[in-house]
UniProtKB/TrEMBL annotation:
Domain of life: Bacteria
GO molecular function: 5-amino-6-(5-phosphoribosylamino)uracil reductase activity
Name of the protein described by the UniProt record: Deaminase
GO biological process, one term: riboflavin biosynthetic process
Residue ranges of every copy of the Bacterial bifunctional deaminase-reductase C-terminal domain listed in the record: 7-182
Transmembrane segment boundaries: none
InterPro entries the record matches: DHFR-like_dom_sf, RibDG_C
Organism name: Cryobacterium arcticum
SUPFAM superfamilies with a match to the protein in the record: Dihydrofolate reductase-like
Entry-linked Pfam families: RibD_C (PF01872)
């Protein structure tokens, strides 16, 4: 079995992915638009996200996102989000951290320092591994080419400064559009991308290809 690494990513139109879920999620550098996704999510993108969660058999997170999830989802096993909470409860959770945090959430595991080796082991162990949020960790996966698919939800809002998956000093990459999902009533669009080898090609407009 060769599993696939999916990065599930929520971004504004100008590429900011910082703190979509709530005001206190990530206030680094004085970010003041925490929770920007909440007024824009509806049944369409909500269903798309839920379908992806139900398809995964492992969750891969950075430390900050793990702490947020571990503090929330185990307490919502009943109620409107029970399907998601129970799915997260049932599957293994893998955490990337430079420290040695206490991982109290059921079936949680700390990755070792050799990230490439750890990702290879996850591919052997699982079919579909998803990274949700975890922007700093997702940046590392992109920079080192350790992912297979980017599931990118783009929302019709511009917030200016903030953390981006593709920073100004990030490495170049080539991606291939796999699918455009149904747009939500509030204007969110799901774009699925696969990885292409090599750096982006260049050319001259009007020249023959």
């Amino acid at each position: 079995m060769t599993g696939r690494i999916h990065i599930d990513h929520f971004t504004t139109l100008d590429g900011v992915a910082q703190a979509p879920g709530g005001p206190e999620e990530d206030t680094d550098d004085g970010f003041r638009f925490g929770g920007w996704q909440a007024p824009l999510i509806d049944e369409t993108d909500g269903s798309q996200v839920s379908d992806g969660i139900q398809a995964m058999d492992a969750l891969l997170l950075g430390r900050r996102t793990y702490d947020i999830f571990a503090g929330y989802w185990p307490h919502h096993l009943d109620g409107p989000d029970a399907d998601i909470a129970r799915k997260f409860e049932a599957i293994p959770k893998y955490v990337a951290s430079r420290g040695t945090p206490e991982l109290s959430w059921r079936d949680s595991h700390l990755l070792g320092p050799d990230l490439a080796a750890e990702i290879a082991a996850l591919r052997d162990r699982h079919r579909e591994i998803h990274v949700i949020g975890s922007i700093d960790f997702a940046r590392t996966l992109v920079a080192e080419g350790l992912f297979d698919q980017l599931n990118l939800w783009v929302y019709p809002i511009v917030v200016g400064a903030g953390k981006r998956l593709f920073p100004d000093d990030g490495p170049p990459a080539s991606l291939e559009l796999l699918e455009v999902g149904q747009a939500s009533k509030r204007g969110a669009v799901l774009l699925r991308y696969g990885v292409k080898s090599g750096e982006p090609a260049t050319g001259e407009m009007g020249s023959e290809n």
